[in-house]
Amino acid sequence: LQITGLIxxxxxxxGTLAATAMPQWRVSAYVDGNIVVFETIWExxxxxxxxxxxxxxxxxxxxxxxxxxxxxxxxRALMCIAVGLSVLSFLMAxxxxxxxxRGKEGAQGVSIFILAAGVAFLLTxxxxxxxxxxxxxxxxxxxxxxxxxxxxxxxxxxxxxxxWGSTALLLAAGAMYC
Length: 178
Hints:
GO terms for molecular function: structural molecule activity. The chain is about 60% helix and about 15% strand. It is of the alpha+beta class and about 180 residues long.
């Protein structure tokens, strides 16, 4: 059970890092009947990218942190904290699993490491779930809003799915260790 939790936590940690770095949080939607598409727009936490005909990819980091909308600033902060906490909880889980076999004299200290890793994994999963689900909800709300112009409508990007998968793995790892 501890090894399975360690694998789930490790994959969840890598997924959290990937979701944080990926620019595909919001992807341009093709709502009209036009099947000829020349550009695909990706919007992420750190940059916007435009892919032209699937050949040329051009990305631009956001110019100023102060010019970002407040939700994006909060999502960046939550995801950065989640990455740091996932690494810390993974290291605590390694220490707890490694020293489980030591013997009966240090069993109390080992169980504290395992429990702390479980709580940290649960907290990390919650920290990832908040920005990913909030972004997904706003994309769906704007997609069905008739007042949002068609060129501004977006679809769920791959980073959101990676984030939801990472959340599931982190919460499973936390439950196993708790």
